[in-house]
Design a protein that fits this description.
Blueprint: E1 22-23, E2 36-38, E3 44-46, E4 67-72, E5 77-83, E6 90-97, E7 104-109, E8 115-120, E9 125-131, E10 138-147, E11 154-159, E12 165-170, E13 175-181, E14 188-194, E15 200-205, E16 211-216, E17 222-227, E18 234-235, E19 255-256, E20 262-266, E21 273-278, E22 285-291, E23 300-307, E24 312-318, E25 323-330, E26 334-343, E27 348-353, E28 359-364, E29 369-375, E30 382-383, E31 400-406
Antiparallel strand pairs: 1-23, 2-26, 2-30, 3-29, 4-5, 4-31, 5-6, 7-8, 8-9, 9-10, 11-12, 12-13, 13-14, 15-16, 16-17, 17-18, 19-20, 20-21, 21-22, 23-24, 24-25, 25-26, 27-28, 28-29
Length: about 400
């Protein structure tokens, strides 16, 4: 699921343990912010709404994340929201069609916040929109979409910090396609395609190196690739790596820490989170560890990293366990077990941490809602969060899948 998809430099982590780090995770958001019960006061606590206006949000953007967008897989739509960056509360402002039903998955916003892109796995198109900077409402560009290639199944997206390059995983034909982006008009143009994958899904960029990482849910491999900074063309310059656990073979979304020296991915097969160290000179990966999740049937999809002055956390959206796990990070790539968990979600498939490291949002595909929780909150073990539907009228079957923050 830029992401999807959230992200301060942290190279000197050993000396700067109390500096806040932020990494975007896979993007996925649901239709309604809902009540969540919490068994964890180390990391996640559901948002205590109080007066209906609480806390900042999570997004793979370097800005404040004042706008939010969610893809509705079942309905073929993308919804727009404004986000209160103090309280974290979302307010739906509109919804538009983004291709065929049972298609919209990945979504990413340009760093400028002016444009939005949606991958439709069903009709093979990338949909492009301009963004109203005040309320986030979307207007299709002309042309409204660009073909990713027949039977390619475009799924997840990544974009460079300059907003000039876009990459899309092709789940059906085993490709990753590079696009150049006109930063004035927002229009994308296909540059090149690299194959040799089976079912590529998660995609993430290194924060300082010209290196892109892709997870393959069929082979279990995480593939590093260098890219041309002008055209986006990819090259498999480094070996692909599997988890240190040979049973972790279904990697999902990818999160890379802001220092660029650690990569994490959850496994949909056994629920574990696998970690890899990154050579900050070459971008090469080395398997570091595999860490047990809240259960073996958690089926985590989205992943995100958030930091406070107390600790750094890795969060996973557990679509099979209806929960969000919170791991404490130790020694760069080690996760302290067992994780704590916030429960009460409904099939969350993606997760983002806001730029303020205050909130975690999930896309709850089971009830068309967006879940909002507080990092290191103080509201107690049972906290009611605000709820917002992704569609109007509310539709529990909208199937929210991807989420992005902008501005």
């Amino acid at each position: 699921m830029r992401t999807q998809g959230i992200r301060l430099s942290f190279s000197g982590r050993n000396a700067l343990k109390n500096i806040i780090r932020l990494i975007p995770a896979v993007v996925i958001m649901a239709a309604m912010l809902h009540t969540v019960s919490c068994t964890n006061n180390n990391g996640l606590l559901p948002q205590d709404n109080g007066d209906g206006s609480n806390t900042p949000t999570a997004t793979p953007t370097g800005g404040t994340g004042a706008l939010a967008f969610v893809t509705n897989f079942n309905d073929g739509k993308v919804s727009s929201f404004t986000r209160n960056t103090t309280t974290g509360v979302l307010k739906r402002t509109g919804q538009v069609t983004a291709g065929a039903k049972k298609g919209p998955r990945g979504v990413i916003a340009a760093p400028s916040g002016s444009f939005l892109y949606v991958a439709n796995i069903n009709d093979d198109n990338i949909y492009e929109f301009s963004v109203n900077q005040t309320n986030g409402t979307l207007t299709p560009l002309s042309p409204a979409s660009v073909s990713n290639g027949n039977a390619s199944g475009p799924d997840e997206l990544a974009m460079n910090s300059g907003g000039t390059l876009l990459w899309v995983t092709g789940a059906h034909n085993g490709t990753v396609t590079a696009y150049t982006v006109n930063t004035l008009t927002g229009q994308i143009s296909k540059s090149s395609t690299i194959g040799g994958f089976n079912t590529p899904f998660g995609v993430a960029l290194h924060p300082t190196l010209a290196e892109l990482y892709v997870s393959d849910t069929a082979t279990g491999l995480i593939q590093p690739m260098s890219y041309n900074t002008t055209s986006g063309a990819l090259a498999k310059n480094l070996p692909a790596v599997t988890s240190s656990d040979p049973l972790a073979v279904v990697p999902a979304a990818i999160a890379i820490d802001s220092g660029g020296d650690a990569l994490f991915t959850p496994d949909q097969g056994n629920g574990e989170v696998s970690s890899f160290s990154i050579n900050t000179s070459t971008g090469a990966l080395t398997a570091a560890g595999a860490f047990t999740n809240i259960s073996g049937t958690a089926v985590p999809v989205g992943i995100g990293i958030g930091s406070t002055t107390i600790a750094e956390y890795v969060f996973t959206a557990n679509s099979g366990d209806t929960s969000v796990s919170s791991f404490v990070v130790s020694a760069l790539t080690t996760l302290i077990m067992p994780p704590t968990a916030a429960s009460g979600y409904n099939a969350p498939k993606g997760l983002v941490v806001d730029p303020q490291n205050a909130f975690v949002y999930t896309a709850d595909s089971g009830d068309g809602t967006v879940g909002q929780a507080t990092i290191n909150g103080t509201c107690g073990t049972l906290c009611a969060g605000p709820t917002v539907s992704t569609e109007n009228p509310a539709n529990a079957n909208s199937g929210p899948f991807g989420m992005a923050l902008a501005q």
